[in-house]
Design a protein that fits this description.
Length: about 450
């Protein structure tokens, strides 16, 4: 098995060969190329006790073959279910051709940043486009692009051919650091508790992605369309603007050579903006208005406290009203529009004379390596949507089972060891933990796939 960026290559051979990546001369070698897309998974089950039914999205099922003389009992056999955007198979040339088209993977020990730098400084693309181009950087996506360039202090529109080696090295080093943290923790966590302890303590996970203000300097965060994806930058000084790509091309002088007078050129300049220019308005940086993100969601309490009921969905508003009053008396009709629901919640909050002030849970970085189950629990507590920020090693059923145990057995042991006392808790504490568990199960009932 071999991973290159977002691509996974599995090698199957009829020979008993310990070489997991095979070689060009292997006879009967089958190479399988997998790209999970946004919500793929490759889960392992015990064939007898936990294997679920095959689903319409299952692209491949593998089962362990146990010979009669094997020491492994039949009831301990394992199988795997694979669901992914891309599942293709072929000979060794499939691997070599796909890998040759990919750039340098910051997670791989054989990555060659020197070779990558040579490509970057020849490119007129912006560094924001380059990081998303898998033929340059293999692995980072849109969230990582925003956070990598923020921590490196580079504005996204800086062109590759205007980057010096020192700036490129910052970008590469931050890419290695963040992707390795994501590999170790199973989550995209860019806020470092050692650099920004106050941000980590209040539960911040990222600095500028889908934020209206920079988490570090509180400056305005701009967003605009860059090659079909939303790009982000801090305008408060964390990412200085240097070597920017012009927003619109300069007026070409060859129009004069075609016989147009200076008066004609001036008349064109006075005309209203053309449709082409208008279409580029969305590409100009404007202060970002956070949306309800499925990639990096913000908790309901945080959205309510910072932006008011307008940032909540109708379902969330109804849930809050029902939780606060315990009846349907103040709930608007289900057919009512969002403005009606927003006003109903505002009336209830005004009646209580205080907005929710429930503090956010501390979000400390987990140990360097954690289990897939612990990663699933951490995501559930933080409100991450499994459709994007998911654990590819767990099926939906396995993830649900993992988050139903709060906290995890491993975390509970570590917590008990640190305190050195037996955690019995009073009745109120027990009820609070039960309530948290019910909320986790309720919030993760839907798999979020679209």
């Amino acid at each position: 098995m071999e991973a290159v960026g977002k691509n996974l290559f599995a090698f199957f051979s009829s020979h008993d060969d310990s070489n997991s990546s095979g070689s060009k001369g292997d006879d009967g070698l089958v190479v399988m190329h997998v790209h999970f897309g946004m919500s793929g998974m490759w889960a392992v089950f015990n064939t007898t006790t936990e294997e679920p039914d095959v689903k319409p999205t299952t692209r491949l099922r593998l089962e362990e073959i146990v010979s009669p003389s094997s020491a492994i009992a039949a009831e301990h056999k394992i199988c795997t279910h694979l669901s992914a955007m891309t599942v293709a198979h072929g000979d060794y040339s499939l691997y070599t051709s796909k890998k040759a088209a990919l750039g340098e993977d910051p997670l791989r020990p054989d990555a060659n940043p020197n070779q990558l730098f040579g490509k970057v400084i020849k490119s007129k693309k912006s560094i924001g486009q380059i990081i998303m181009d898998q033929s340059f950087f293999a692995g980072p996506g849109n969230i990582y692009r925003a956070e990598i360039l923020f921590l490196a202090g580079v504005y996204p529109t800086t062109t590759g051919n205007n980057l010096d080696r020192q700036t490129f090295d910052k970008i590469w080093d931050v890419s290695v650091q963040l992707l390795r943290r994501g590999y170790d923790t199973g989550s995209i966590l860019s806020v470092d508790a050692t650099l920004d302890p106050s941000l980590a303590a209040r539960g911040e996970r990222r600095y500028i992605y889908n934020q209206s203000r920079c988490a570090r300097c509180s400056g305005k965060v701009s967003s605009w369309n860059m090659s079909g994806r939303t790009c982000y930058a801090c305008e408060g000084g964390c990412q200085p603007k240097q070597f920017l790509i012009p927003s619109t091309p300069p007026v070409k002088s060859k129009s004069v050579a075609k016989g147009k007078s200076n008066e004609a050129i001036a008349a064109v300049a006075k005309k209203p903006e053309s449709n082409v220019v208008k279409s580029k308005r969305s590409e100009q940086p404007t202060q970002h208005v956070p949306f309800i993100s499925h990639c990096a969601p913000v908790t309901i309490d945080q959205r309510l406290n910072e932006h008011g009921p307008e940032r909540l969905t109708i379902k969330e508003i109804r849930s809050i009203i029902d939780h606060k009053v315990g009846s349907n008396a103040l709930l608007p009709s289900k057919s009512a529009n969002k403005a009606t629901h927003v006003q109903a919640l505002r009336n209830l909050l005004q009646k209580e004379s205080v907005l929710s002030t429930k503090p956010s849970a501390s979000c400390h970085l987990p140990p360097p390596t954690i289990s897939a189950e612990d990663a699933a629990r951490e995501k559930a507590i933080s409100g991450e949507n499994r459709a994007v920020e998911h654990i590819a090693e767990l099926s939906r059923e396995q993830a649900m089972k993992a988050i139903s145990v709060t906290p995890s057995p491993e975390a509970k042991k570590r917590k008990k060891g640190r305190r050195g006392v037996d955690e019995k808790g009073d009745e109120a504490g027990v009820e609070k933990r039960k309530s948290t568990r019910r909320k986790l199960l309720h919030n993760n009932t839907d798999d979020g796939s679209k």
